[in-house]
Automatic annotation (TrEMBL):
Highest rank taxon of the organism: Bacteria
NCBIfam families from the UniProt entry: CoA_CoA_reduc, PRK13512.1
Protein name: Coenzyme A disulfide reductase
Function: Catalyzes specifically the NADPH-dependent reduction of coenzyme A disulfide.
Organism: Staphylococcus simiae CCM 7213 = CCUG 51256
Sequence similarity: Belongs to the class-III pyridine nucleotide-disulfide oxidoreductase family.
Amino acid sequence: MSKIVVVGAVAGGATCASQIRRLDKDSDIIIFEKDRDMSFANCALPYVIGNVVNDRDLVLPYNPEKFYDKKEITVKTYHEVISINDDKQTVTVVNHHTNEQFEEYFDYLILSPGASANRLNFDSDITFTLRNLEDTDAIDYYIKHNNVQRVLVVGAGYISLEVLENLYERGLQPTLIHRSEQINKLMDSDMNQPIIDELERRHISYRLNEEITNINGNEITFKSGKIENYDMVIEGIGTHPNSKFIEGSNITLDNKGFISVNDKFETNIPHIYALGDVITSHYRHVDLTTNVPLAWGAHRAASIIAEQIAGDSSIEFKGFLGSNIVKFFDYTFASVGIKPSELSQFDYQMVEVNQGAHANYYPGNSSLHLRVYFDTASRQIIRAAAVGKEGADKRIDVLSMAMMNNLTVDDLTEFEVAYAPPYSHPKDLINMIGYKSQSH
Ligand SMILES: Cc1cc2nc3c(=O)[nH]c(=O)nc-3n(C[C@H](O)[C@H](O)[C@H](O)COP(=O)(O)OP(=O)(O)OC[C@H]3O[C@@H](n4cnc5c(N)ncnc54)[C@H](O)[C@@H]3O)c2cc1C
């Protein structure tokens, strides 16, 4: 009977422990979680703030008791792993209820500590970040008890955009600032124009190339020289991996604190695995390392690690495609493949179409902008991006499947679309990309 210790009880950690239990009824599995909650739906949090998602039981389906009853896995919340001794195969844990420290032995150690929000570090009571349900509760409480109206959202990554939309839908008055012109960085910058249009259509104020230089009470001073009053500030300025506690061990971290893993999600130390936002891995379709801090990767790794430890050890990860998607008011922004900033490392060509998402005569149509980048020599698809009110998710998911199978841009002519007027075209946008690429 193995002793399996897991660090982090949310997307990667709780999923991996559950997957191991599915395959192995006997091992002793214990998860240490430094914060209050386990296994909550991180991706739901912006929608909880907007009151779009109201059922707390669906967002937080487990507590340690329920989890143990269902899976016989022990979860210790408010227990932080502060160091790892990989020679002795132990972790040192602090129980934050009692401040007591103890060592726990492991046969296998699984690290899924995720990432923390970067902070602007102003000494202020009105600044918040959003990473977990405690943060969500704190934001909600502050809004309710402080008559919050004007909220400054700092940063325009996908979480900030979701938060801004949800604050607006809740009836508050958000303002967005971003320190450069490069908003929503996973999307091609010229395809982000609908973000600006959606803001302007709703009279939501925004400023690019803007930063906070000081916060004094509710008075905020900006780099531009402007001074404005806000009731609350939500900082969405990126994250860093939670790997400080690993530094004293022999586990190799890169210079940004990420753990680099192999295709079995093993670290450089036998029997120690890592997954989720803390790892770097590689792309599936091109020869580049990458870090994709999104939920699919954590779930896929959880299954593969469980197979390694408790099942079929021949299963390996084939790499990321980097699929991602965000809703911003009426629009969807989705892409797959290398990031726009990585394109310069390739000799590529690009084909795009911008036309109705479904048959033009059928009501409710809106235009969909679809763009595919392919390697000039091999003609393999290296990136695709789609922006529109309808059908962006479908096109990117189809192209993700194409990329998973190393299809070329020319192969897209053969994609047999499920067609009826409300959904697509007999010659779909994806087919059009294939036909258009023939002149390249
Ligand atoms: C607001 C928000 C919205 C998101 N929306 C999406 C989305 O729409 N789509 C998508 O694909 N992804 C989304 N994500 C990203 C996704 O949630 C993460 O990629 C995923 O949760 C990563 O899983 P993880 O296990 O690595 O980290 P987490 O799920 O963050 O879990 C890590 C846990 O480890 C704990 N921990 C850290 N250090 C220690 C320690 N030393 N000892 C004990 N416990 C420790 C932390 O407290 C944390 O609870 C979103 C994330 C957030 C915050």
